[in-house]
Amino acid sequence: MIISPGSGARRAGDRRAMPLTSPRRSGLTDQVIAQLRNQITAGAWPVGSRIPTEPELVEQLGVARNTVREAVRALAHNGLLDIRQGSGTYVRATSELAGVMHRRFADAAPRDVAEVRSTLESSAARLAAERRTERDLRQLDTLLARREESWATGDAERFVAADAAFHQAVVAASHNEVLIELYADLGDLLREWLRGDVGGELRPEHHMDHARLVAAIRAGDGDTAATEAAGYPFACPRGRLSGAGRDDEAEGARDDAKDTGGPDGTGEDAAEPGSG
């Protein structure tokens, strides 16, 4: 039986078209949004930095205050900026996807974040052991040394930045573009989590030896590289990894490593206490 469009019945899957409305945002506002976004993505305004004030942007761009305000609000809605009343506007993320992830997962349980880090970084480390180039190895050596130098200064913020750069280099050595982009988009959230773990003062439990990871990647030992990388996110101070069963699992993993002689055959734990 044929059902006429006016009979009130429609086949499954049919959708009535909704009327389109003219966009309200002006072309000028779009241009301002593009300029501000470029400042962010190019690194001129790093994550965590405060952008120029509204009057300063009005003067620099030569546009009305309302145009600047609308552009800033649009970027805040997309997760790139964080508007803090009484303090200013700060860069939250370097891409819309990173901003969405930050906004969506900023309050995620530390255990959940650690599990995601472990999954991504162990996979990247295994691939890096198979695909690394001499240039990758030189970069890892440089960033590992920089990480140790940052630790020696006692500057917590500098150490967090150096540690994050090292882990990004490990992921880059995987030469998997999707994994690299995904990790980059999560990077701001992961750094914030690590920054919260470390706090404003470096303590012995925050340090981990990453030399074994680099050695495994250099040797092409994917299993050891993956094991080393997988353990780092869970080796933070116990109080951060709340959630039933996580402490028992971490303890069990260390016991297993001892029983099997550990990844380096010495009987030592695969991961020492500290932040990754």
From TrEMBL:
- Name it: GntR-family transcriptional regulator
Residue spans of biased composition, Low complexity class: 1-10
Pfam families per record: FCD, GntR
Q: Which residues form the HTH gntR-type domain?
A: 26-94
Q: Region (Disordered): which ranges?
A: 1-26, 234-276
**Is Transcription regulation there in the keyword field?**
yes
Question: What is the species listed in this Swiss-Prot or TrEMBL entry?
Answer: Streptomyces clavuligerus
Q: Which UniProt keywords apply?
A: DNA-binding, Transcription, Transcription regulation
Traced from the root, the source organism's taxonomic lineage reads: Bacteria, Bacillati, Actinomycetota, Actinomycetes, Kitasatosporales
Q: Where is the composition biased (Acidic residues)?
A: 266-276
- Spans of biased composition, class Basic and acidic residues? 245-261
Q: Name one GO molecular function term.
A: DNA-binding transcription factor activity
